[in-house]
Amino acid sequence: MRALIQRVHRVSVTVDAHCVGEIEHGLLAYIGLGHDDNLQSAQRMIDKILTYRIFDNDDDPAKFGKLDKNVQQVGGGLLLVSQFTLMAKTDKGRRPDFGRAMAPYAAQALFEQLVNYAKNQHPNVATGEFGADMQVASINDGPLNFLLEV
Fold it and tell me: Which residues are catalytic?
């Protein structure tokens, strides 16, 4: 499983001209699910995302400007978007190979479990729409982007 996380000022996801999810100040997380992923790896990924320290610590002068707080500590939101392209193999040729991505029917069920777990762990979680043509509008903060794997 891979997650590309971005620190954002705000982000929204639109499907067919309707906003399906949005947050202010927090993290946008694109989630890629692979063949071997399961509920345990999904829970580990959410735990890692929620505790990954990529927010400034402005409270402590000794730590000013250091990435010392996580999204929970700053009261930020989390927007989760399923993104099978993160599992692409890109080391050869000029066309991505999506053979490592989980099949859509299994990925949708696991993504729903991942979202439910996230909502149980954090009060401000939004999502895109699985399998839809989504338009993601974000204002990145930093920008800070990290690729996480579990």
Answer: 83-85
